[in-house]
Request: fold
Amino acid sequence: MGSSLAESDVDDDDEFGETHEINVTPFIDVILVLLIIFMVAAPLSTVDLPIDLPSSTATPQKKPEKPTYVSIKPDLAVAIGETPVKRVDLVRTLDAAAGASKDRFIFLRADRAVPYGEMMDVLELLRAGGYSKIKLVALEGVADGAAPAGKP
Reply:
């Protein structure tokens, strides 16, 4: 709040009046920093392997904070997150991950073109390594080959 430094008998033009302005510069700086943080962090939270997932009508489950994705690509290559690994090193790499626990959920993503036997081989590797909590990932929506609700 401003105050007057001039005497009362001086013209009103020379007086310092009260100012009613809010300094928004620090607010804008904080908003810009938060925007930059979210712009950098958002791409890091997604998995960018090109996998054509099948659809499912099952109700979606709650996703944990830091999910562990094991992906089987169309060329049958296996990856943990976005990092390709050899099948023989799959369990060893999962064990070496930070915060590794055999009780955590492993989310298995397999491309639509992957044969069922290949997916079962990866499931067997995970089971033999002690990972028994495995969830299969699919796209939300109508299951393949099924008619949408209310249509023949």
Remarks:
- The two ends are 72 Å apart (CA to CA).
- Residues 146-152 have pLDDT under 50 and may be disordered.
- The CA atoms of residues 46 and 81 lie 9 Å apart.
- The chain has three helices and seven strands.
